[in-house]
Write the structure tokens for this entry.
Amino acid sequence: MIQKTLVLIKPDGVQRGLIGEIIKRLEQRGLKIIAMKMVQADRILAEKHYTESITEKHGEKARISLIDYIMYGPVIAMVVQGSSAITLVRKIVGATFPGDADIGTIRGDFTHMSKARTRQINKGYNLVHASENEEDSKKEIGLWFSDKEIHDYKLSAEDYLLG
Ligand code: GDP
Ligand code: MG
């Protein structure tokens, strides 16, 4: 099934000069970038992006810290499309905690921070956000992009890699 997903290169990814590296990994797998821009998120956008579901998962303290994290510099926002794109992008990105992420994933290859350290500094620097499911991706794409900013075109690789 062809899906769309929201991918953010978080401020640590931008500041570490990893934009190209991250985009390369999405492209090399045959995924299609159908929207992309650099955005300095304001508090309203950050709070809409990280909702109460984060509080339920990680606690309110973590949500407040995440809102600061996503706002502390510009991010690259993208809509990525492809066959099972939501699952595929999360596989390419790797597990939430850098210390858990497999080698070969973006988080596994470019980050290393234990859960204990994440909790100590209350920041989970892990380079990328990627939508978790269809419901989230719909909501998140609508939050970051207008319909006009999302493009429709054919990748030559579609004949070989997708479907
Ligand atoms: P993801 O979907 O893999 O990004 O993970 P989640 O949706 O569960 O969490 C969102 C983000 O919160 C993660 O990407 C981390 O940056 C951050 N995070 C996860 N756990 C913690 C935590 O215990 N404390 C803090 N401050 N941040 C966390
Ligand atoms: Mg998440």
